[in-house]
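Lab meeting minutes (informal)
Scribe: AK
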Amino acid sequence: MYRVTQVLSVGPFASLERAPALLAAGVTHVLNVSDAAGVVPRDAGFREVAWVPVDDFARIPTHTTVELLDTLHRMAADPGSHVYVHCLAGQHRSPTALWLYLVALGVPPDDARDWIETASPVANPGHRRLVGPGHVLLAQKHGLANFFPHPRPEIVVPFRAADPG
């Protein structure tokens, strides 16, 4: 799991074996954006588990982009939530979904990309196979129309682990 902000994390498939570690890290909500149904049930201790299927080899359709944004917003706006967004490997789909949401919250696309890539060295947010310039504009317009004021401003602050020294 790679923590991008205090509220949002990204990574590989949330398997039954990974569920205890996710719960121990404080994850409360799980969003699966792979093309395969998840295996982590809500009764494993999460407040919400959702699936918005995304094809790894095609542009994300407009309706799916809106569904991703709205689902992430609902989860992230829940008081005290920590949302884990995953796909199969945590390289393209989940970083791109998280990137689109940060862009919808007003984070400049390059900054959002930097935050995610800093947290997750394997991530490739905004992969050109999945999104184009129209996705950025859609995210910005949808976020502006639906997500402000955000009830949790800490969501748009990059997470920095405490200095071990």
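Next up, CB showed the second protein from the same session:
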Amino acid sequence: MRFFRFKEKKQLNKMKYLIVGLGNIGSEYENTRHNIGFDILDALAGASNIVFAPARYGDVATMKHKGRTLILLKPSTYMNLSGKAVRYWLEKEKIEIENLLVIVDDLALPVGSLRVRAKGSDAGHNGLKSLRELLGTDVYPRIRIGIGNDFGPGQQVDYVLGKWSKAEQALLAEPINQCKEIILSFVTQGCERTMNLYNKKGNGRG
């Protein structure tokens, strides 16, 4: 991976993190299941009184937390090319891959369930496929957010690009708040301790 050329500058950048929410740009994708990563970052930015601004390959906001710098990224490349945006910002900001955190929807988990992982396969997710192809690895931290799988044969695309139901929205408030906590824990305590703290809680529904 090209960004490993910044290895010698690791000491300068160990307090800088890239937090990526996966999703699709455009009003037609707002409040859809596939865009939960965007929603999480919007919630964190709102709670921190910061705003996103258009930048190369995405909307970006920067926040500080306990001496750490968090660069929040919502890629504008659409889901299938998410890796292009992530690779660019890792290289631009000279951030090591262990300081990357990706927030992604997951069909394999019930709605609102959370899992923190240090690595994992793409499991057929087009955004994660793009990251693996462009970064050359699937060893990076991520938060998986359950969106359920209540759809019939051939209906997966319509489901993930569909809007949340009112019942589902009611289940999301607590997980979204918890995701904000997980992100701040990740940048201050690291991935392993964050996994120990939050995965063992069960996160509600699975």
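CB comment: Helices lie at 10-13, 36-47, 82-93, 126-135, 156-160, 166-189, 191-199.
No objections, moving on.
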